């Protein structure tokens, strides 16, 4: 059948990328017990974004119906889903809190900082160009916000406790699929790369992100 005809290099590269991210996820969420997890910090794309794009000048938003129909009051919050997203569920599953707030929310309370926030921006990728064409946060932007968060956390909790929270927090990362779907295949913004070369570049960027 025609739709099953896929070039082998694409399959190999794609599965390599997925394997890397499966490893990153399980590595980042390996904890001894729920009591050891004071906070959850999320980076990446729409799988984890809890509403950061609401506060950015982009059309990549989900703050309108039918999004949020399973949330209390059926109110869309900027999450790309009917209700809570993966980062919310992980935070709840670890006994941290039921909803992970978006860091860009101007009304974010200091009391939320010790238990974690979300830096993810729906539509972003490992390749910064993926985010820039949509006027959303790049991974580089998210890391800058993370440094800003650490400073705020130290002001709220004190340096010693803040360092403890960061060292014991669970870091969630979901990124890479938009680079292929939007930048490479959708808008053809990387014409000089073959698919193998581009996915290899994404793996390199993923390694740098973790470091």
Automatic annotation (TrEMBL):
<dbReference type="InterPro" id="IPR050592">
    <property type="entry name" value="GDSL_lipolytic_enzyme"/>
</dbReference>
<protein>
    <recommendedName>
        <fullName>SGNH hydrolase-type esterase domain-containing protein</fullName>
    </recommendedName>
</protein>
<dbReference type="InterPro" id="IPR008265">
    <property type="entry name" value="Lipase_GDSL_AS"/>
</dbReference>
<dbReference type="GO" id="GO:0005576">
    <property type="term" value="C:extracellular region"/>
</dbReference>
<dbReference type="GO" id="GO:0006629">
    <property type="term" value="P:lipid metabolic process"/>
</dbReference>
<comment type="similarity">
    <text>Belongs to the 'GDSL' lipolytic enzyme family.</text>
</comment>
<dbReference type="Pfam" id="PF00657">
    <property type="entry name" value="Lipase_GDSL"/>
</dbReference>
<dbReference type="InterPro" id="IPR036514">
    <property type="entry name" value="SGNH_hydro_sf"/>
</dbReference>
<dbReference type="GO" id="GO:0016298">
    <property type="term" value="F:lipase activity"/>
</dbReference>
<dbReference type="InterPro" id="IPR001087">
    <property type="entry name" value="GDSL"/>
</dbReference>
């Amino acid at each position: 059948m025609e739709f099953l005809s896929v070039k082998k290099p694409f399959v190999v590269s794609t599965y390599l990328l997925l394997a890397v991210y499966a490893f990153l996820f399980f590595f980042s969420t390996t904890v001894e017990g729920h009591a050891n997890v004071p906070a959850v910090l999320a980076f990446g794309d729409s799988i984890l974004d809890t509403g950061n794009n609401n506060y950015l000048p982009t059309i990549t938003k989900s703050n309108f119906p039918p999004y949020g129909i399973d949330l209390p009051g059926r109110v869309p919050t900027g999450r790309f889903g009917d209700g809570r997203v993966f980062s919310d569920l992980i935070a709840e599953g670890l006994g941290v809190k039921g909803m992970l707030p978006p860091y860009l929310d101007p009304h974010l309370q200091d009391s939320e900082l010790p238990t974690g926030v979300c830096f993810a921006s729906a539509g972003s990728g490992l390749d910064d160009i993926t985010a820039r064409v949509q006027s959303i946060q790049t991974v580089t932007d998210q890391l800058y916000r993370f440094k800003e968060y650490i400073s705020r956390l130290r002001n709220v909790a004190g340096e010693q406790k803040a360092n403890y929270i960061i060292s014991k927090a669970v870091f969630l990362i979901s990124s890479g699929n938009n680079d292929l779907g939007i930048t490479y295949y959708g808008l053809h913004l990387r014409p000089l790369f073959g698919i193998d070369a581009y996915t290899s570049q994404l793996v390199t960027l993923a390694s740098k992100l973790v470091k």
